Amino acid sequence: MPFFYDNSSTASYSEAGRTWDTPQDWTANGIKELSLMVRGQETNKPDVLYVGIQDAAGKKAVLYHPGGANTVLVTSWTEWVVKLQDLAAQGVNLARVKTLYLGVGDQNNPTPRGIGLVYIDDIRVYGQRAVAVAQK
Fold it and tell me: Are 68 and 48 in contact (CB under 8 A)?
């Protein structure tokens, strides 16, 4: 998904969302993580990338990419793994997920910042993933 953001003037953040008609249970079958692939561009102006979910009661939780404002400058595909428990710790009900948000900008400090284009792909939820072990 190409995601253009322009937070250079009055807009403080840019956001896209996916809302489900029926709330999704992100606790079923041992789901523990949200994973998405992200790629930016060198020509982007720095700004922070975030993911958020809102439950059926309207409670929203947001996590910012640990790479900070330079995440949108990285030109190779990078997996971002979000521990769903980190979102649940903010009070959102993972058994009743209504909307998934992806955005660029700082909702907590709304000031004009960057402009650019990021690509987001392969958005998935996972249970416990096996870790490959190299054999000698």
Answer: yes
What type of residue is 85?
Answer: Q
What does the pLDDT look like over 73-110, one tens digit per residue? Answer: 999 999 999 999 999 999 999 999 999 999 999 887 77
CA-to-CA distance for 76 and 84, rounded, in angstroms?
Answer: 25
Question: What's the predicted TM-score (pTM) here?
Answer: 0.88
Distance (Å, whole) CA 115 – CA 100? 22
Q: What is the torsional sign of CA 119, 124, 129, 132?
A: negative
Distance from C-alpha of 120 to C-alpha of 5, rounded to nearest angstrom: 13
Burial (Cβ within 10 Å: 0-12, 13-18, ≥19) of residue 72? buried
SS3 56: coil
Round to whole Å and give the CA distance between 65 and 56. 24
Whether the CB-CB separation of 75 and 117 falls below 8 Å is answered with no
Alpha-carbon gap, residue 130 to 36, rounded angstroms: 17
